[in-house]
Amino acid sequence: xxxxxxxxxxxxxxxxxxxxxxxxxxxxxxxxxxxxxxxxxxxxxxxxxxxxxxxxxxxxxxxxxxxxxxxxxxxxxxxxxxxxxxxxxxxxxxxxxxxxxxxxxxxxxxxxxxxxxxxxxxxxxxxxxxxxxxxxxxxxxxxxxxxxxxxxxxxxxxxxxxxxxxxxxxxxxxxxxxxxxxxxxxxxxxxxxxxxxxxxxxxxxxxxxxxxxxxxxxxxxxxxxxxxxxxxxxxxxxxxxxxxxxxxxxxxxxxxxxxxxxxxxxxxxxxxxxxxxxxxxxxxxxxxxxxxxxxxxxxxxxxxxxxxxxxxxxxxxxxxxxxxxxxxxxxxxxxxxxxxxxxxxxxxxxxxxxxxxxxxxxxxxxxxxxxxxxxxxxxxxxxxxxxxxxxxxxxxxxxxxxxxxxxxxxxxxxxxxxxxxxxxxxxxxxxxxxxxxxxxxxxxxxxxxxxxxxxxxxxxxxxxxxxxxxxxxxxxxxxxxxxxxxxxxxxxxxxxxxxxxxxxxxxxxxxxxxxxxxxxxxxxxxxx
Length: 528
Hints:
This protein is an alpha/beta fold. Helix content is 43%, strand content 13%.
């Protein structure tokens, strides 16, 4: 599929999404449209898989009569194979195209048309059956309650059942007209379109966007930093994974990742992350996404990961319960991050789960670079006692949805190649201005990554600071202490300025004389 076709697919899906826009907020109609796209994806994948199995019998999946004994035997055999291979199952009558056509069926009999067009109850039952089909299987955790946010009884879809049915039938019909071409194209084509929609919703969701989406260019930087000189990864982890976009971005930088791990506190976003992983072709056995508060109840504490990426909520609240001083994640520091600023708590959590040969990159607000008290103590321990900090990268302001504050990326390694210095990069002035937001260009991303890989010093952009210099600064990491971006103003030629003032004064004199002459001719007093 060409770039032009990909853009066309993205625009088609966005246009369909806007069918619901007038009825609810961006973050609400997001859940419906992404859920329906996911249902269509599951259906097409199920249909293609079953047709491959039935190829020798020279029949198609949708031609099977589910009411006959022969049909039931076929369906049971396919069900067993699908649950093992795909992780879920849909009967022929439950496929997206079937329910979409039923919802938009035409009839000469008005009453029959109303009856045949009513699909809400059947659709709700099908979505529930997708989840239930995995009960007792290895994929149960990955599909459980996956469609719970698609409330087809919500009055936000319409005041009456008929209104709700009409809008849903319309959306399904529009989606049914699009061929996802799963059998002919790379799975990432649809996956990229899905990511595009998530980004579009994020741009319209204000402060809520930070809960589920990291701008694509920032994701790319993080992914390239943690995959430096690697073609494969055993594991990648995001403790605040949102929609899973960061994990999937890391996958684009290497040929294979054995296991994906993530944790997300928001239930709706957790469901979105699981859908996103499946829709990108990540097999259910290769990812483990959990829903819970990462700091309070970590779900993968026994694991160590080769790559860790995160864009946690900036300066979030957490309990900072004194009992955590006995938690292996925090005990060696002797202090906890403040309850009003969990930034370093996330750093400590990620450091604990980082493998000895691993790399982690985390986006944080600038305050972590210089704030004192407990945060200053943790920062000093990480540098002086552990020597884990590899790089500090300053990003432009106003590049994240929902906040305009400047941010930075901290890169940590437990086994650093350059263990006698810390690289500082000031990329804060390298961006493009958009209408409401700044954004990083491809050249800006490439410059950051290249500078990190080469660890080079560049005037007014980057500096490799010896650890002794960082110690002299009392472990304050504020970037201007290390990268001088001050631009001297051109010297003022005072003689030229004085001459210009003389010229202005002479011109003024001539003008006044002219005005005085006109006033004399008119017989009126001069104004000076």
